[in-house]
Design goal:
DNA binding (chains A, B); homodimer; DNA-binding (chains A, B); Tetracycline Repressor, domain 2; TetR family transcriptional regulator (chains A, B); 184 residues; 0% strand; DNA-binding; elongated
DNA sequence: GGCAGAACCGAACAGAGTGTTCAGCATCGG
DNA sequence: CCGATGCTGAACACTCTGTTCGGTTCTGCC
């Protein structure tokens, strides 16, 4: 049976939606398991049969997203700007989720995971010649700017579209990376 | 009386040092008030006469630093790379504190404050002509890279000196900023 | 339609951590 | 030396967590 019991789907979905709404309202740290229970109208014991704790619920929600995201990010060429653009597009298509997961309101847990995912991806595809600056630092640079811009967009309610954000990213990031990878 | 009671100094200092050590050992989130009390050998009630909660203790420690930091950052010219360099130098002079406050182990509280401080500073001194990209985004870019590099240095035990970090920063960040501030 | 099994419920419980109170002791500065 | 201030430690109420379990409801399947 590849598809779960309907009740399970309902419960998990309800818990996840309640969590997102509550994160948006008062921030991940201030959300309590009891809050989620009340909002989703789910029994306490039921919650703990599905998730070990609040963080597990968050990560389950994140994993559902990140599986799709990995697909899109994996298909990009070895251009350091591509992952960022794919991520921006992806975020714009799922604004509600990103509003809860990234930005000020989301916990640092998701930020850490996102950062690690991006870092690994960039490390894998940035195996270039002798850069002036260690590849590790270049990757750190790309990751920080990507997540920084994304967070900015999220916290400002996605004021422009994904293409605009990608253009800004290219303008700001590419010159530096180019200068470092091709020593003058 | 400009100087406090010696007992007060001793207590506050002990609490702060205990907090830093514990953050370094197991990360801010996992540090409990009781841990700090035991480590500093201070009574529970004493703690709460000094600080409202764990976060207040952290912020008091941070404020002591940030006062000095503001001084150094305030004196820089309107070159967007200067604040970063000053911050790097400052961090290298107080590695133990930054190991606790920034990096993976430190809570996101300090990160938020540092980010806000940097953002405000850069916003104030980056009042330039019509940039291709909103100044807000440029500032976000600079802030993210500065904190990103700093976090990297902290988490890797300050592998190079401040000048090296500043040079890497300039190489990576300046080309993009220049390209954006002076439309081709 | 009916049945076995799975999911859900809710109440109760133990445990950890928080923040407050207070009476008594110690230490400080003058 | 003394009045004021700070520290102590134990006790307490509170919130949140994570677990347990007997009883109820729903689902998939025959």
């Amino acid at each position: 049976m590849v598809q779960q019991d309907r009740r399970v789907r309902r419960t998990r979905r309800g818990l996840q939606e309640a969590l997102f709404a509550l994160i948006f309202e008062k921030g991940y740290d201030r959300v309590t398991v009891q809050d989620v229970l009340d909002r989703a109208d789910v029994g306490r014991s039921t919650f703990y049969t599905h998730f070990r704790d609040k963080e597990a619920l968050l990560l389950a929600a994140f994993d559902a997203l990140s599986e799709d995201l990995r697909g899109e990010l994996g298909a990009v060429a070895s251009d350091p700007a591509r992952p960022a653009e794919a991520l921006f597009r992806f975020a714009y298509e799922r604004q509600p989720a990103f509003r809860a997961l990234c930005g000020k309101q989301g916990g640092e847990v998701v930020q850490r995971h996102l950062r690690r995912m991006l870092t690994e991806l960039l490390m894998a595809q940035l195996c270039l010649g002798k850069p002036v600056v260690p590849a590790e630092v270049v990757v750190e640079f790309c990751t920080s700017t990507t997540l920084g811009l994304l967070g900015w967009a999220v916290d400002n309610g996605f004021p422009h579209d994904a293409a605009w954000l990608a253009a800004a990213y290219r303008r700001l990031v590419e010159p530096g990376v180019r200068a470092v990878l091709r020593p003058a």
